[in-house]
Amino acid sequence: MFTLSFGEERGDFLSQVEDLLGQNLLPEALLLAQDQRRRNPLDVEAHVFVGDILIRMGEIDQARDILTQVDKIISEISFVYARMADIYRERDLKSDAALCQRKFLNLNPISQQAAEIAEKLSFLENQETDASRIDESGIENIPKPDFFTVTLAELYIKQGHLQMAQEVLGEIIKRQPGNINAAAKLDSVKVAMSKMGNLSGKQNGPDNLVKTLSDWLANIDRLSAHATGK
Prior knowledge:
Blueprint: H1 6-22, H2 26-39, H3 44-56, H4 60-90, H5 94-107, H6 114-131, H7 147-158, H8 162-175, H9 180-199, H10 205-228
Helix pairs in contact: 1-2, 2-3, 3-4, 4-5, 5-6, 6-7, 7-8, 8-9, 9-10
């Protein structure tokens, strides 16, 4: 039996759905896009077409659900990096393991496994730091202290999980009281959490909240730049 390759099948799908949209046959286009999305969950255009068509049909909440489902797909796929990191680590390929762990945490920073993987990455980075204290010229390098733990806090901040970021930064400061960067971020997190609490009961809370978080993130960048002398 003759079957289309994925490339040919996808090209046929794109042509058909665009033709249906051109005729404003939205229900038919939606069925086609949903079928393509179901058969090929990694087809980006299929997800986009489903979302676009739902918005055209006025189904805004359903369109938002598409993004939630995409988040789930990304979260599941990200575990490829976590498992490959373990494989690299078992074979003493530390740099490759660390790279996979960073990618996992960038894709899935709030998973239940994030803390465990953060600890593994921190351990690997500490090993790399110890190995690179002396460069080829024999001059001792100054390592970056607990780089990833601060990075994990920043990932939580970007996701809006301020309580989790506060806990991570607080732990850093317990172990490194002189960490100015972590202290500056922790102060900003506390201020932002306080303002969020104050805004929660106001009618225009969402708009003010967005502005507050934007100002807060800009403030963190300024404090970090000042602390590092940039």
